[in-house]
Structures are given as C-alpha cells and as structure tokens.
C-alpha cells in the first residue's frame, strides 16, 4: 500500500489547537478562527447574491450582519472524517456526470414513449456509512440524478427513503445496488481511512490522499451533550432494517 499524507486536525470556532502529524514532526497552533472565516465567507456570498450587487457599503453591512448571525445563531457541533483522493474523485465525478446524462435521456424517453407509463416506487435503502457527511453527500448525489428523489433521510438508522420514477427491468434490488455503489464511490473519494476500511472491509487500493483528517466545527457557547445510555435490557428495540414496499 502506498504511503499517504496524513493531517489530523480539529477546528473549533471557540478556539482550539490544530495538530499536524507528518514527516517533520508535530506542530501546534491555534486555528479556531478558521471555522468562523469559512462560515462568514459563505454568509457574505449569500448576502451579495441576495442583493445582486457589490459595493463597499454592502460589504460593511454584510460583515455586520454576518457577525451578528454567527453570534446569535452559533455553529452546531459537526464532526466528520475526510480525505481527498484525486483519482477516485475523478472517477466519482465522471461516473456521476454519466449517470446524469443517461438518466436524463431515460426520463425524456419515458415522457414521449408510447404504451404504459413508468413503474414508480418508493423504497428504503440501508446505507453502510456511519458518517453524516458521507450520508448527506450520498443523498444529494441520488437526488441530483433525474428519476430519483430523496423523500426522507434518517441518519440514526442510516436509511434513505427514495421515490423512483421507474424501477426498470432490474426492479428495486437494482435501485438499491445503484445507491450503494454511489455511496461507496463517494466514501472512497472523500472518506477518511477508517471510513473506507469500515465500508470495504479493509480493501484499499492505496490511492494517495491529499488531505486526511478530522474536523469539528462548534460554537464556544455550545457544549456537546454526552451520549445517552444504551438500553440493553431484554426489551431493547432492534435496529431497523431496510424494507421494500
């Protein structure tokens, strides 16, 4: 397996240390302001987009509105592992664009073809990734492909409820496999090492990761609640399984 460049980082908007592990040793520095700058930058872009113009007065008013927004509505705790694998990311984007083009042609044909209409269905797909980021990216990718729409996403049970315009000849099992394949491509392209190993059972082809780390965005006044005690009694509920309608 080829070596990777590993950078383990923790960002907190209230101020925390960043630990960078590499060949040169371990370095420490305060990088908590990075979370605020990222959120503030996006808010400024939204501000200019809403006004449809850029001027010094608008920039000053937008900066004031951004600071007030971040103070009144503090950032929630968000933790995720990520790693950018260039070759896998290229494969992910290429396959996604192909799926969009192919699905667009299929939806267009369904609109004009003679005979019976499409066989639509609503189904639940059980994802394998435990990362909220990977689940979100998977749901977005599925929704952006014409002919499929996410109705509900349950991060606790790792399920997606999907409306399919036409199940096709493969039926619902083929739809489920397409979603799981999309999830695997996303995790392999953007997931952390542990996330990839958990998804693939340790099968990793050694693609070099440009950046790999853990990010935590949190407000200085927001404290993450401890996890609730698990119920282990005989009447403990069993995890939900994916089911077909």
Task: Lay out the secondary structure.
Elements: E1 17-22, E2 25-30, H1 33-51, H2 56-72, E3 78-83, H3 86-112, E4 121-126, H4 132-144, E5 148-154, E6 159-164, H5 171-190, H6 193-200, E7 212-217
Antiparallel strand pairs: 1-2, 3-7, 4-6, 5-6
Helix pairs in contact: 1-2, 3-5, 4-5
The count of domains is 2
Average pLDDT value? Answer: 74
Largest sheet: 3 strands, antiparallel
Number of strands: 7
Return the structural class.
Answer: alpha+beta
Number of helices: 6
**What amount of the residues lies in strands?**
15-25%
Rounded to an integer, what's the Rg over CA atoms?
Answer: 22 Å
Which spans of ≥5 residues are poorly predicted at pLDDT below 50? Answer: 1-31, 215-233, 236-245
Spatially, the strands of the biggest sheet line up as: 4-6-5
List SSEs in N-to-C order: EEHHEHEHEEHHE
Termini Cα gap: 43 Å
Structural write-up:
By secondary structure, this protein is α+β, with helices and mostly antiparallel strands. It has 2 domains: 1-81 and 214-220, no CATH class; 86-190, no CATH class. It is built from 6 helices and 7 strands. The chain has helices at residues 33-51, 56-72, 86-112, 132-144, 171-190, 193-200, and strands at 17-22, 25-30, 78-83, 121-126, 148-154, 159-164, 212-217. A 3-stranded antiparallel beta sheet has the order 4-6-5, with helices on one face. A two-stranded antiparallel sheet has the order 1-2. Strands 3-7 form a two-stranded antiparallel ribbon. Helix 1 (33-51) crosses helix 2 (56-72). The longest helix is centred in the middle third of the chain and has 27 residues, at 86-112. It is globular.
């Amino acid at each position: 397996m080829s070596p990777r460049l590993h950078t383990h980082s923790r960002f907190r908007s209230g101020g925390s240390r960043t630990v960078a592990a590499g060949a040169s040793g371990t370095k420490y520095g305060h990088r908590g302001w990075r979370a605020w700058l990222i959120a503030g930058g996006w808010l400024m872009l939204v501000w200019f987009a809403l006004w449809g113009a850029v001027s010094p007065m608008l920039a000053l008013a937008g900066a004031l509105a951004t600071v007030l927004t971040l103070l009144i509505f503090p950032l929630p705790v968000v933790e995720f592992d990520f790693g950018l694998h260039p070759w896998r990311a290229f494969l992910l984007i290429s396959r996604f664009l192909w799926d969009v083009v192919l699905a667009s042609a299929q939806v267009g044909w369904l609109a004009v073809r003679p005979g019976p209409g499409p066989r639509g269905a609503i189904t639940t797909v059980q994802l394998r990734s435990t990362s909220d980021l990977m689940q979100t990216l998977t749901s977005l990718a599925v929704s952006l492909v014409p002919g499929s729409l996410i109705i509900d996403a349950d991060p606790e049970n790792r399920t997606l409820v999907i409306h399919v315009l036409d199940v096709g000849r493969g039926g619902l099992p083929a739809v489920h496999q397409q979603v799981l394949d999309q999830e695997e491509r996303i995790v392999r392209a953007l997931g952390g090492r542990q996330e990839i190993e958990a998804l693939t059972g340790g099968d990793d082809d050694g693609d070099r990761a440009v950046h790999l780390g853990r990010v935590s965005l949190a407000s200085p006044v927001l404290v993450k609640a401890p996890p609730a005690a698990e119920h282990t009694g005989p009447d403990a509920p069993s995890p939900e399984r994916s089911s077909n309608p």
